[in-house]
C-alpha cells in the first residue's frame, strides 16, 4: 500500500481499467502523449498505444459525441473534459444523448459503458472559468450517474466502479485536492459502490453533509463545533445521482438537524434537492430548518474567492445557528 | 489524408490575393439522366437484375408507405409523420451499396435505407403506434425507428448529434477489427450544427471508417439552402477537413450507388472518412406539421417532380428489360394492402404496461424510480378511468 | 381589447417591441419569411424587413453566440430557439457567456438587452424531444432571468418586460397553451414586472404553486379540493429566477402548507429550490412537509405521457395527503 | 459570396471520382523574408516611418512585458501568465491595419493588439493584480483584459465562444450604420470548436463585416496541429463556407499588415467576412502552467527562433534607415523600468471592497443577492482575520 495523491490514484485506476478491459479507451484534449494538463493520464499512451489513449481535437461536444458513439458500439470510453467549466459545449450530447440513449431505444442501444472524467471546483485562484462546480445541472438528468470522490482512496475505488458500471457516469474530480490530498491507496483492484454515501464520523447533534473537497471543510467546522461540545455526524455523499437519501435520512432522524455544504451557487444547487427531500422524509424529526452553506449566487470570483467560499467559519456559524434555533 | 498540418506543405506567394469564391468547382456525379438514359461517357455500376429490382421495389415501397402514413396522420390515426418523397434514391441506393454489417446512423428521412435492410411493415407500424411490440417501447414520436438486429441505430430528434457519434462508432468498429463501416445520414440543415464540424473533423483526424452522407434537399423546414450556407454546398467543406469528398445527383440511384460503393471501399481500406453530398429535393412537406406553400412555389416543386428518382429508375429498368410492369403493379397493390392491414392491426396493440415507464432509464431500476413507479401504480389504480391506456393491465 | 391566443399575444408583443425599439432584431430557425414553426413571428419580416427579422442557419449555439455579440454591441436581440429541447447546444453560450458577460467585464460589456424565447413543456404527444421543461437548469445560472407566462395576457406583458429589462431573459412559452389558451389582451403597450409572483386565488388551507401551463392544473385540483371543503391559495410564480420567495413565504405562513407542481423531473427540478428555501424561511409555520408533484425522474415518455404528467388527480391526492398529515 | 446554393451552379461529371487531398493548394502570403528583405516580386505595404516604428515598438514592448510577467509569475507575484513570444507580429501588425473604431474580440494571446491600441502598462498591471483600479474589477484570472474605451472586448476563457459573437457584433455595427468592422482572433485549436463552425457560417450567410483572424501557431497546449485537423489548415475551411480567405506568414509583419488592411476594406465594402490564417509558432510555453519540453523538441523551437518577427522587422527597418538603434535601446530600458515600476505599484493596490462581490451579476442587485451580501459582510466582520483582503474596508 503506497501513499498516493489524488492524481496518482486516478492514474492507477485508469491503468487497472485499461489492463483489465481491452476495450477501454481514454481520450480528450491533451490526454495523449502529454498525459493531460494535470497529468492524470500520464504514461497511458506509452503503455497502451495511441489507438487506446489519444488526443482529440479541441471540441468538447465532439469528445462526448464521439464517446457516445464509441460506447454504443461496445467499447469502454473514458473521456476527459479538461475543466468542468468547459463541459457545457457538450451539454447537449450529455443531456439529450448520453442520458437518453438507452431509454429511447428501449434498451437496444446504450452508452452505459461511458465514463466522463472532469476536474471541478474552486480554491485554486481560477476565477469564473476554472472553478465551477456544475454537479447540480447533471443531477437533473435522469439516466446519468454523478460521482465525486473526496480523497485518493475513494477516487480509485469509485472511478473503477464508475468505469465498470453499466450506466454512463460523470466522474467529477475535486481539482484542488489533486496534489493536496494524499493517503494510502491499495495497489490492488477494488471498487466502492456507487450510490452509497459514507458516514465519515458519527455524532448526535447535527448532520453535516458534503461531497468532494468540501468534506474537508465540514470536518474542520465539526472540529470547531466540538470545542463547544457539539457532536457532529459527518456524511460524504459521494454519489450525487442517484443519491443515498436513506443514509442521510437515517442520520437526520437521529440528529434532528441537517447542514449541507457545497461550493456551487446556493440557488438550485444540489443542496436544494437534498433539503427538499429530507424535509419531506424527516419532517417530524427536524428540530431546526435544514441549512445550506454554499457559494453565492454569482459567477465564481477571483479577487473575492476566499469570501465566496462556503468555508469552515461560515459552516461553524451555521452549525451554531442550527443548534440555537 | 492527415499528412497536412501547420506549415510544411505550404507554398509561398508574394501578392496579396484574397481567395474569392470560385476556387472550388465541385462537380456532381450523374450517371442516369432524368429520362432514365445513361449519360454519354458514363458507366452504369455493376448491378444485377435482382439488386436493381430490390432497389426499385424498396423505393416504390417507401413512396407507398409515405403516402399511406401521411393519410393516416390526416385521419388522426397517428400523431406525426415525415415523408421522404422525392428523396428515395438517396437513402435506398446508398444503403444498397453497403454491407449488412455496416452500421446505419440516420437523421429521420431515411426510411428507405431501413426498408432496404429488411425492416418490415409491421415493424414500421409498431414504432409509429408506440405499441408494445416495438423494441423501442413506444417512447419516441413516430418515425424514430431503430433496430439493433438490422444495425440501424435508433433515431434521435436533436439534429446533428449522430455525426460525432458516427465517428466514434466507426472508431470502435476499427478497434474491434470489424470488417465494417458506419454510414451517417444528415440534412444540409443539420450540417450547420456544431456537431457536424466536430464529427467530421474528428473522423478525419482519428481515422474513422465512416461515410458522411448529406442529403442536400434544398430546405431545412422553411429555410432554403441559400439562407443555410454561402459556400458551395456541403461538399466544399469536406475539402476543408481533408476528407475525401464526392457530390452526386441524389435523384440518380446509379450515381448514389456508385459513389457509396466506392466510398465504402475507400473508407474501409484507408480507415478514413468519406463525405458524400447528394443533391436532391424534398418534394414532400417537411412533416405532417408543415405546409410548404408558406415558403416555396408550386412551380419550383413541379420542376423537381420531373427529376423523380422513381420514374427515372423505372425507365432505366425498362430499357434493360428488367421490369415486369404487371408484376410491379401487382407488387404495388399488394404493398398497399399489406400496409393497410398492418396499420389496422398495429393500432389495436396496447402500449407497454405502466411499470415500463421507469425501465431503461438505467440498466437497473434504482430505488427512487421504484418508489416513483409504485406510487404511480397505486395512483392509477385509484383513478383507472383517467388513465385508460394502462389501467386495464393493473 | 381583443381575445387572443398565446401565440397571437406573443406576436403582438414582438410587433410592439420592434415598432418602439429600432434596434430590436428577431431571429432564429424558420422565424423569417415563414414566421416560425409555430407562427409566433408571423409577418415580422414583412413589416420590419429582412435585416430585422431573419432565418439563421440551423445552429442553436450559433444563434445564441450571435445574439450575445449583437446584444453587447447595443442592439436588442430577441432570439428564438425552436424547441426548449434544442436549447442545450446553446448551453455554453448561455451559461458561460450570456450570464457572465457583465460580471466578467465589471459591467463594461453586457448582454442585458438579450431575450431568448423558447417553447417548452409536454402534453402535446411530443415524446422525449419535444416536451422537456428545462427551467431548472437555468435557475442555477446567476446572471440570467427566467420567466414563464401562463396565458396570453401574461405572455404579452411579461415578454415586453423581458425585452426591455436590462438583463438577459430566458422567456419560456408553454407550447401546449399556444392555441389552447385564449383571453382578453389589451391592444396597447403594457408590462408585467419580472420577479413578481401572482396570487391567482386566495385561500387558507394550503398554498398551491406552479408556473406556465401547470397553473391550470393546480386550479383544477383546487376545484376538486374545494368540494371537500379545502380552501387553496393559488400562486403563479411567473419568474423562476430571481423568484419571488417573499410572496410564497407570506402565503405559506398563512396556510401552513405548500404544494409545488411542475412538469420537469422531480429531482433537482425548480421545486427543490422552492422547498429548500421555504422550509427554512417558514419552518415554524409548516404543518406538513412541503410536497412536490412533478414529472418522474425519466426522460419524457410518449406512450405513457398521461401517466407521467403531474396532473390534477395527482395534485388533488397530494393536497389530501398534506391536509391529513 | 452567398450566391451559391443548392444546385443551380453545379456542373455535371459522369465519372466516379472522389476528390482527394490536393484539390486545394492554399499559398501563404510572404513579403518580408526571415532576414528582413522584401521577397523578389513582393511589394511592401504603404507604411510610413511613424507607423513602422509604432509596430516595432509595440512588438518589442509586448516581448518585454511577457518576459517580465513570466518572471513575476515565477516569483509568485501573480498566479498566471500567458506569453505571446514569437507571435507578436500576428497581433500587432493586424491591429495596426484596423481603425480604432473597429471592435477587437480576442482569444488571450493578442496582448500585442491591445498594446497597439494604447492600453497602458498600468492597465495591464491592474488587470493582472485583480485590483480595484481594473475596470474588469478583478473578477477574472490574469490576462483577461478588456477595455470598452479602446473597443477591446473583455476576454473570456471558454475557447471559440467569441467567434459567433463577433459575427453578431459585426451585424450590429452594420445595422447601426457604423463605419467599422469587428476582428475576431482565435487559435487553430479553438477552430475545432463547434462555435467556430457556427460563427463563420453565420457571418457568411448573414453578411457580417468581420475579420476572422486565426493564429495557427502549431499547438493547442500539447496538441500539435496534426492531431487537431487533417485538412490544409484553417484557410481551406474558409472556402467551404464561401468566405474570402487568405493565408499569411504570421511572423511577417508586412504580410500580416497588408492582408488585414485589404481584408478590412473588403469586409467593410461588401459587408462580408474575411478569414485570415496567420501561420506562426508559439515560442513560449502555452502558459506559466505549462512545460513544452513534455511534448516538443528544442530543435523545433530553435528552427522557429530563426523566424522571429522582431529580428525580421528590425532588419527591414534598418534597411530603410528607419531605426535609431540607440533610441530603441533607450526605449527598451525605459519600458523595462516602467513595467517594473507599474508592477510594484499595482501589486499594492487593494482589491475591490467586499460589497462588490454581488455587483454586475445583474444590472441591479436583486433581493437575494442583497441578502447574501449582507450576511457575508456580517460574517467577515465577525472573522476579520480570516478575510484579510476585504475585512479592513468594513
Ligand atoms: C438541434 C435541433 N434543432 C432544431 C430541430 C428542429 N428541426 C427538425 S427538422 C429541422 C430541419 C432539418 O433540415 P435538414 O437537416 O436539411 O433535413 P431535411 O428535413 O431537409 O431532411 C429542424 C430545424 C431539431 N430537431 N434539432
Ligand atoms: C472550451 C474550452 N476548452 C478547453 C479549454 C482549455 N484550453 C485553454 S487554451 C487551450 C489550447 C488552445 O489552443 P489554440 O486555440 O491553438 O490557441 P494557442 O494557445 O495556441 O494560442 C485549451 C485546450 C478552454 N479554455 N476552453
Ligand atoms: Mg434539408
Ligand atoms: Mg494554437
Automatic annotation (TrEMBL), chains A, C:
Give the protein's cofactors: thiamine diphosphate
Tell me where on the tree of life, at the top rank, the source sits.
Bacteria
The record ties this protein, via Pfam families, to: Transket_pyr (PF02779), Transketolase_C (PF02780)
EC assignment: 1.2.4.4
Q: Which UniProt keywords apply?
A: Oxidoreductase, Thiamine pyrophosphate
Q: Which EC class is this protein assigned?
A: oxidoreductase
The identity of this protein, by name, is 2-oxoisovalerate dehydrogenase subunit beta
TrEMBL record, chains B, D:
Cofactor section: thiamine diphosphate
Task: Give the source lineage, highest ranks first.
Answer: Bacteria, Pseudomonadati, Pseudomonadota, Gammaproteobacteria, Alteromonadales
Family the UniProt entry places it in: Belongs to the BCKDHA family.
- The protein's name is 2-oxoisovalerate dehydrogenase subunit alpha
In terms of SUPFAM superfamilies, this protein maps to: Thiamin diphosphate-binding fold (THDP-binding)
Q: Name one GO molecular function term.
A: branched-chain 2-oxo acid dehydrogenase activity
User: Which part of the chain is the Dehydrogenase E1 component domain?
Assistant: 57-349
Query: Which Gene3D superfamilies does the UniProt entry name for this protein?
Result: 3.40.50.970
The keyword Glycosyltransferase belongs to this UniProt entry's keyword annotation: no
Q: Which reaction does it catalyse?
A: N(6)-[(R)-lipoyl]-L-lysyl-[protein] + 3-methyl-2-oxobutanoate + H(+) = N(6)-[(R)-S(8)-2-methylpropanoyldihydrolipoyl]-L-lysyl-[protein] + CO2
Question: What does this protein's UniProt record list under function?
Answer: The branched-chain alpha-keto dehydrogenase complex catalyzes the overall conversion of alpha-keto acids to acyl-CoA and CO(2). It contains multiple copies of three enzymatic components: branched-chain alpha-keto acid decarboxylase (E1), lipoamide acyltransferase (E2) and lipoamide dehydrogenase (E3).
- EC number(s) for this protein? 1.2.4.4
What are the recorded Gene Ontology BP terms?
branched-chain amino acid catabolic process
Q: Which UniProt keywords apply?
A: Oxidoreductase, Thiamine pyrophosphate
Q: Domain of life, per the record?
A: Bacteria
